[in-house]
Amino acid sequence: MRLAVAGMVVAMMVSGPLYAHQQDEQAWVGWEGDQPGVLQDLVDILVTPVYAEAQISVDGNHRLIHSNGLPDHDTGRFPNSGNPHRIQEKSKTYRVPLNPEYSARTTRLGLWPFGVAVNGVPFDPGAAEFWRRDFNSGWQYEALGGAVNLGVDRNNAHVQPDGSYHYHGLPTGLLERFSDSSVPILLGYAADGFPIYGPYGYRDAENTTSGMRKLSSSYRVKSGTRPGGPGGRYDGSFVQDYEYVAGLGDLDDCNGRTGVTREYPEGTYYYVITDSFPFIPRCFHGTPDRSFMRGPGGSGGMGRPEGGSGRPGSFNREMIGASGGRGQGNGPGNGRRPPQEAIDACDGRDKGDQVSFVTPHGHEVSGTCEARDGMLFVIPQRR
Length: 383
What we know:
383 residues, mainly beta, 2 domains, 6-stranded mixed β-sheet, 3-stranded antiparallel β-sheet, 6% helix
């Protein structure tokens, strides 16, 4: 497994709980083959879990999600050929209604985050990439459609120009942190306050004993040929290539449904992140809070749109994964050193000894004791 943060990558042998419904491992589009210094790689990946933090709290009629923006799982390498930006710590606070109200009328999602995961990383499906770089063309490239290389990693995520890491689809690394696959997994909250689950749910939305299955969206690629713009047959390259067909799948036009979950035993409307379009919902059945909007009036601004070619119920676990500390700068000469666990594992050992240790994140790292800069510490085993 290749892991990286802030542009540094290291190949490591890791072990830990996996989400039981995980699909087969896929190649990481966002990883480049050239690897920088081993010392820097080792430090970067092992400090990641310590410095990623998210806190969820209740303030009056709102739920607040505060985050430093760092993912609490492995990522692809950034920058890469499709995404030239580095992951940076970004302190943000998102606010959502504590008791959202469902409306049959939908609100369309603009070029801002749909919601935020329980680890504080935003769900941000839209790409600011348009046919002929024309925002007014009416043809927006689908971020996961394959027509443009946005450098996404195995978590279906990449980085904004301001350094903000964000998901465009199923957050694989986050899912792997949940070991109980017998219940729907709460992944986060939408900007309108309704919870986000996925990709599995109860077969019968109202029956917790009905078993679990992967939920499907009700969107499909249109048949025929595009009437204008880029022309050619509909193939999923553009958002406009898809159409909603009521009843085609399990979910409605906003990729949601009403049902019971462990956190909402009395039932609630909730959204689902799926492994096919729209991946992350593109509309709301509630009123999104302005803290998610970019630009004037929105406090969740995350910099200019990515790519540079576009324009501008209660929950019973209110504190999740606060793990203190702040990151340090990258690169040599900044006083960084290997994690103490990597040093302790080689205490009393000789150069070349095979050892293993457990990171603060619970991963087991196997490697060889090597000397660097006057220190003996573990260099992860490569495969």
